[in-house]
Amino acid sequence: QVQLVESGGGLVQAGGSLRLSCVASGGFFSMATMGWYRQAAGKERELVATIYSAGTTNYGDSVKGRFTVARDNIKNTLFLQMNSLKPEDTAVYYCKSRILTREYWGQGTQVTVSS
Fold it and tell me: What is the CB neighbour count within 10 angstroms for residue 92?
């Protein structure tokens, strides 16, 4: 059973930065496809960024050029560096792990960007 714990969320002004972390335990982290998703109030959950086991990344259109996803396979940790934050980035951010057909989610961390 994989457990994911996110941290690093908070309140920040527009234009500011935050760095989210997601620590994984109980699974083969280095083999997993890891991702960040977010869900704003009243909206569907959407992809923010994905990083594959080989390090390849892809991003949602709304965050390209502003967010960077990275992973540390030694520390079993996933990161999301968020720069130039906008009020529309306000959401609960979730970490997801996928190994073969199994998916696991963290509990989420709130990010609020004030204008």
Answer: 18
